[in-house]
Amino acid sequence: MSYSKLIHEYLDGGVDSTQEALLFDMLAKDSELRADFNKQMKLHLIAQQDMNHITPPAEATNQLFGRLGFTVPDYLETPPPSIAEKVGGYIKKYGATALLILLTSALSVVMTTNYDSWFGSQSSVAQNSSELNSVPVVSSFETDVQTSSSVETTETASNNLKNTTNQNSFSDNSTNNQANYNNQHNIANRFDSESLQETNPSEDGNSETDNSDLTTSFFDKLAAFFTSQTPVASSGNGEMADKFLNENGNMQKPQIAFNPFSSTIILPTFSDGEETQFEIGFKYLSESSNPDFSHLAVNNQFYDNLIVSGMYHFDSNHALGVELGWERFAQSFVTDYYGQLSELKQYPKRFTAGMMYRFTYTALFGIDFISPYTELFAGGSSLGPISKLNAGIRFSPLNNVSMNLGYEYGILYYSVDNKTYNSEKNGLVYRISYNF
Amino acid sequence: MARPLSKYSDSDLVAELKKSKAKSEAAFSELYARHSQRIYAYCLRVTGDEESAKDIFQEAFFKFYNSAKETEAVGNVIGLIITITRNLCLNYKRDKKITVDIDNYQFSSQDQGYEQKEMLDILARALDMLNEEDREFFVLRLYHGFSHKEIADITGASVAAVKNRIWRAKEKVKDILAPYLEDLN
Asked: Can you tell me the distance from the alpha carbon of A112 to that of A128, in angstroms, rounded to the nearest whole number?
């Protein structure tokens, strides 16, 4: 008789004391035999668990008793689920999806209809010193509406801009750029920023001239000028070189701002739905949009766009969780600084938070360790609400470790002077996660 | 003062089935409460199909009731119910042959980590892969806890044959579930 069969007979209650002693002696010596013993023991246990888990359906009980002409006694009746239990069941089954749809819908409504009235009364741009340490203002274009000149000419504007650019790039105290300096100083005061660079196209604006017309024509000229200029990203002060940068923009379209979500590093997670309930992970976004903003990041570091996520898996398909990040957003907007319309560009780093929902298409390819996924994020930062969509492939080469490769599109909405701007960013997303 | 039905033996309750409708109904309800779960588990695990299990389960108790009313005395009530149920299951299986490709099953079950409920589902699927006789012996022994002698009485097989079949069934199920059993705490 094999020892495996001896184990079977022992668990079946069919061995005498001699065989029992022999079996335990062998178990003490043989690890493989102990493993076999454990398996057989577990088999007995799960069979009993299965037995206890099975209950006859109430429908069958009712039909049988009805067929016999009996009334089902109270102790056999399964009470119908209460309303609370039904609601709880629906919440458990569809709650995550419903919540995500609700959040996304609410966010969409806010963004598309009521954003100005809800958020438009205040500027949601970086405005304090701590923020601006990492939020350089890229550029600004100004017109001095208090001065007497009527309309800025292209030549004048270009010359002034060149002067300003040169000033910022190669010298610190040129007297013929005093106005530019003053303007820069004003903006710096307002934004409490040492990392501000601007160009002053004119110091001779006409106060009687319509502001918008002046702005439009002037900025058209500026745009034309800057399209032929390489943005200056340095100054006489080496430390300022990273912070004071000249940029051009299209002032006729102030409502359009570029906000790339450049490199976002997220460490999100992934897990195999049914088996693991929680996951924690990290994600990184390698931004491919708005490359012209990347040089605006001060002290740009790897963790500038690092995102951490924690998720709960409802099943193998649905997961809901939170995502916390430290991300950069490109902002380009027009604002009036002490009577001077300016376009500013900046690349602030902000703490972001929000809820994330993921749907995983399990075994779509018939391979367990590769699954497509889609993620939706709804949240915000101090700048405004953020939504993201991310889709890709998840690899699960190890039991508890997953890696995602996907493409993410995100958009930030923010308000400046009662105008709503958006900032988009997209790129490849890399993620590693631990499931438990 | 009358004894509560919970104090009655199965045989006493069967005797009550022959009395008034009220007493018969009460006795049947008590017998049903005692054995319905085991009978349904047998039906479900032997047939592997919920709808069929439900039909056979109802029919088994219906036949048992009618049979018990006509019988003088029943010594082994659960044995009688199981025998009736078994015959119904044999009829069902005779009409419907189910085959499962073990290789395919094993290929698609490589994931690691699982919850208890999933483990039980996997056990049920593993039982589906056994031949009908092995599956029945496995269920009668490991699920219902019948002795080899009782199983021999129910099935008409010898005790030695019962032992061998149970051993064989257990080995097959153990092999199928090996990766899961190793990880199961």
From this structure: 28
Helix (H, G, I), strand (E, B) or coil at A410: strand
Mean pLDDT of A327-344: 81
- Give helix then strand counts, H and E, for chain B: 9, 0
Q: Of A71-85, A205-219, A321-335, which has the strongest mean pLDDT?
A: A321-335
Of B121, B184, B112, B182, residue with least CA distance to A435? B112
Q: Which residue of A has its CA nearest to B127?
A: A47
Reported pTM: 0.42
Look at residue A130 in the predicted model and tell me its pLDDT.
40
Is the four-CA dihedral A334, A335, A336, A337 of positive or negative sign?
negative
Question: Is the Cβ pair B37, A5 closer than 8 Å?
Answer: no
| A361 vs A237, higher pLDDT | A361
* Residue contact A76–B170, C-beta within 8 A: no
A-B contacts at Cβ under 8 angstroms:
117
Q: How many CB atoms lie within 10 A of CB A351?
A: 10
ipTM above 0.85, yes or no: no
Determine the residue of chain B that is closest to A58 in CA distance.
B54
Residue among A86, A78, A50 at smallest CA distance from A62: A78
- Weakest-pLDDT range from A356-370, B58-72, B74-88, B131-145: A356-370
Residue A422 amino acid letter: N
Q: Does A47 touch chain B (CB under 8 A)?
A: yes
Q: Per-residue pLDDT for A413 more than 80?
A: yes
Which residues in A lie closer than 8 A to residue B144 (C-beta atoms)? Answer: 51
Banded pLDDT at A126 (limits 50, 70, 90):
low
Question: Does residue A210 contact residue A151 with C-beta atoms inside 8 Å?
Answer: no
Nearest to A42 by CA among B178, B122, B133, B5: B178
A410 Cβ contact partners less than 8 Å away, ≥ 6 residues apart: A261, A264, A377, A386, A387, A388, A389, A424, A425, A426
Nearest residue on chain B to A32, judged by CA atoms?
A: B182
What does R_g of chain A's alpha carbons equal in angstroms?
Answer: 33
Interchain proximity A39–B178, CB inside 8 Å: yes
| A340/A60: higher pLDDT | A60
SS3 A149: coil
Interface test with chain B among A1, A5, A10, A43, by most B beta carbons within 10 Å: A43
Among the partner residues A14, A54, A75, nearest to B33 by beta-carbon distance: A75
DSSP states along A32-51: HHHHHHHHHHHHHHHHHHHH
Q: What residues contact residue A142 under an 8 Å CB cut-off, 6+ apart? A: A183, A198, A199, A200, A201, A202, A337, A340, A341, A342
